[in-house]
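Extended Data, panel c. Modelled sequence:
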Amino acid sequence: MKKIIWFSITFLLATNVLSAKVKSEFVEYKQGDTVLEGFVAYPEGAKKAPGIVLVHDWMGLGENTKARAEQLAELGYIAFAADIYGKGVRPKSMEEASKLAASFREGDRKLLRARGLAALDALKSQTGVDQKSLAILGYCFGGTAALELARSGAPLKGTISFHGGLSTPKADDAKNIKGKVLALHGADDPFVKPEEVAAFQEEMRNAGVDWQFVSYGGAVHSFTIKEAGNDNSKGAAYNEKADKRSWLELKNFLKEIFPSK
């Protein structure tokens, strides 16, 4: 019994030490006159570290994106979870989320880029961020936002899309991309059609971008999001294998673009 109690105490102490290494807080910032509320996670005591913007899925900045930011902070990065919609603007249903995301994705790509740039500026203002080592990643809707910011010519070492939309109204803008691109895709995703994938790859080739495209068999849309459930027939579902494999792919990519980390 004493051994069991001692193990439990040791485990709790170890857990607390691990969590103490990462700090996080909400950060209010603005794009134009719109107030936004992001979430930053960073390694305690970090003096100079690469900075990464994370962009949420169509449900807005929530627990999943914040947890990913903290995971990146545990790896030694300063992670800023963006708020594309605005402070307090959070869809209450899938239908509401669809309409809100479409207003950016299909309506105003300029505004989508502006919100991404505002998040990047907010990240750069955080203490300890290496101004020359910046990246962006996004999930679903956020993948589209990440790619759009890269296409705007933002000073990014890397851009990562997790099961994101790949299309853009201005494919020629890919020539503005300054860093490397990694697209992580569900091979059976019904929402990102094969022709959209082909057009994206052609866009990257024509622009001379250093790009990678990884496709996961058996995975559909939202394969990193547990809240999506496990029913592939709905078109969006969590896939544990694809989630773990894509995270490993991300870590390798980050080591490549931030070699001094």
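The longest helix spans residues 2-20. This feature is highlighted in the accompanying rendering.
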